[in-house]
Amino acid sequence: GAGVSQTPSNKVTEKGKYVELRCDPISGHTALYWYRQSLGQGPEFLIYFQGTGAADDSGLPNDRFFAVRPEGSVSTLKIQRTERGDSAVYLCASSLLPTTPGFNSPLHFGNGTRLTVT
Amino acid sequence: KQEVTQIPAALSVPEGENLVLNCSFTDSAIYNLQWFRQDPGKGLTSLLLIQSSQREQTSGRLNASLDKSSGRSTLYIAASQPGDSATYLCAVTTRQGAQKLVFGQGTRLTINP
C-alpha cells in the first residue's frame, strides 16, 4: 500500500521567508511524528501527534516552528522567519498506536523534505 | 539525558562476509530499540524492533540483540550483499507511547562486490 508521503521533496527559500512542509501519513495511522536530520547526523525529534493534538512538542527548537494536524491525518510543519541553520532534511513518520501496554508500534518514515535556506 | 552511540561510523567489507554493527545507549530504562536502514536521499526503513522484554529479533539475514543492563545492541548481518550498502541507524524509546526516538549517528556500510 501507499507509504508516508512528504511534499515538496526539495524546498529552497531565502532567509527570513516562511515555509510549509506537508506530510500525508499511512491511512489508519493515528500517530504522526516530525524529525529533523542534519547532514551526517541521526534524526532529531521535533513533535509527536496523537490524532489531532500534539502530545509532545518538546523537540521544537523555538517559537518559529509550529505544526498542525487539524483532521488527524495530514500534517503541516510551518517555519517562520527561516534561518540558514534551519537547513536540513525534515522527516515525517507515522505509526499505529500501541495496542498492548509497553509494546510500541514500528515507525514508517517518508522520504523527507530537503530544506535549504540561502 | 539519553545518548546513543554507534560504532564504527563507517565500515567497508567484501561481499559474503558476516558482520556486526554496534549500538550503545547511556540510560538502560528503555521501552524498545529499533534498527533502521537509510539509503542516500531516502527516508528510514524499519528493519527490526526489539521490545524491552525481548533479547533478540530476527528477520531473514538480519539478527538484532538487546542487552538492556549493559546498554548495548548489535545488528548481525549474515552473508552480506552489495544491496546491503546503506546507513544503519539504531534508536531507542525511553517513554512508553510517545515514540520519542533518540537516534545514534549511524554506521555507513559499504559491501564491495
Q: Please write the string of helix (H) and strand (E) elements of chain A.
A: EEEEEEEEEEE
- How many strands in all of chain A? 11
Count of DSSP-assigned helices of chain B: 0
Biggest sheet of chain B, open or closed, and with what strands and sense?
6 strands, mixed
Quote the distance from N terminus to C terminus of chain A.
Answer: 37 Å
- Name the poorly predicted regions of chain B: none
Q: What would you say this structure looks like, in words?
A:
The complex is a heterodimer of chains A (118) and B (113). By secondary structure, chain A is mostly beta strands. Chain A contains no helices and eleven strands. Chain A has strands at residues 5-7, 10-13, 19-24, 31-37, 44-50, 53-56, 65-68, 75-79, 88-95, 108-109, 113-117. Chain A is globular and about 45 Å long. With 113 residues, chain B is an all-beta fold. Helix content of chain B is 0%, strand content 57%. Chain B has strands at 4-7, 10-14, 19-25, 32-38, 44-51, 56-59, 62-67, 72-77, 86-93, 101-103, 107-112. In chain B, strand 6 (56-59) and strand 7 (62-67) form a beta hairpin. The A-B interface holds A 4, 6, 31, 33, 35, 40-45, 48, 55-56, 58-59, 91, 93, 95, 97-98, 101-112 and B 4, 31-32, 34, 36, 41-46, 49, 51-53, 89, 91, 93, 96-106.
Topology:
The complex is a heterodimer of chains A (118) and B (113).
Chain A: E1 5-7, E2 10-13, E3 19-24, E4 31-37, E5 44-50, E6 53-56, E7 65-68, E8 75-79, E9 88-95, E10 108-109, E11 113-117
Parallel strand pairs in A: 2-11
Antiparallel strand pairs in A: 1-3, 3-8, 4-5, 4-9, 5-6, 7-8, 9-10, 9-11
Chain B: E1 4-7, E2 10-14, E3 19-25, E4 32-38, E5 44-51, E6 56-59, E7 62-67, E8 72-77, E9 86-93, E10 101-103, E11 107-112
Parallel strand pairs in B: 2-11
Antiparallel strand pairs in B: 1-3, 3-8, 4-5, 4-9, 6-7, 7-8, 9-10, 9-11
